[in-house]
Amino acid sequence: MRRGGLILCGGRSRRMGQPKAWLDFGGEPLLVRVARRLATALENQGLLVVVAAPHQNLPDLTADHLRLGGMEIRLVHDDRPDRGPLVGLAVGLAEAARRGIQRVYATSVDVPFLAADWVRFLFDRAEEEGGFDVVMPEAQGFRHPLAAVYCAASVAWAAERLIAADRMRPVFLLDQPDLRGRTIPEEELRRVDPALATLRNLNTPEDYERALADESAAGSVERAALADSADRDDSASGCETG
Ligand SMILES: Nc1nc2c(ncn2[C@@H]2O[C@H](COP(=O)(O)OP(=O)(O)OP(=O)(O)O)[C@@H](O)[C@H]2O)c(=O)[nH]1
Fold first, then answer.
1. pLDDT tens across 41-85, in order?
2. Atom number of ligand 1 nearest to Cα 107
3. Which one has a higher pLDDT value, 118 or 45?
4. Is 110 annotated in some ligand binding site?
5. Which of 68, 83, 96, 110 has its Cβ near the most Cβ atoms within 10 Å?
6. Is the sign of the CA dihedral 207, 212, 217, 221 positive or negative?
7. What is the rounded CA–CA span in Å between residue 80 and residue 113?
8. Domains contained in the chain, number
9. What does the entry list as the binding residues for GTP (predicted)?
């Protein structure tokens, strides 16, 4: 089965006050970080579709530049601007289906802690029991359509139908009679992503600052652990030679 990834990065970033795709995170734009993490979950194979607003200026996303191995990256644009993420999903899923991708993990661009295990877990759940069209996490009292796995062809159609009916909430995809949908409960999600870090999205400058601080604290802990284990290695070799 061919798997793909879909990153939505249109939208207005009104609360953030600057385009989220370009936010610097660990020395690279947030879109690049999220693309890299999603590509890791897909083992750098298949297709990554980025759906932008018309004329949106984005960081360089060529696969060579990102060193994403055999992964293909396609940039497409909303054909109905400013109508929200359901349009981005419809356009991106249709593109994936045209390119022979069966299922897609769809994410927003503002999730710096997206976990590869979460993505793989949802694909696995989608492939159970004859296959599901929609696999959507349900956690912290909400359903999360922008952290979910979709069957590209069937859900692209259903999204168009919802748009035509002016039912613009992606969560409605779960209730379509011709789609096989399932939600994944929080306790199962926490087994692969204990803090639900994948769901941590950045909407405001405060969210961004807190995320940067947490990333930097996590980096310090990691560096301290590495230094500690290097010290222990030194002392161990000291014993051996003594
Ligand atoms: N392609 C596309 N993506 C969208 C659209 N609207 C929102 N998104 C993306 O969907 C995700 C969630 O968007 P929101 O945080 O709800 O909206 P936003 O426009 O980013 O921010 P606000 O203006 O503050 O609401 C983000 O990754 C957005 O980039 C859209 O019309 N088209």
1. 999 889 999 999 998 889 888 877 777 878 899 999 998 888 999
2. 27
3. 118
4. yes
5. 96
6. positive
7. 30
8. 2
9. 8-10, 20, 78, 110
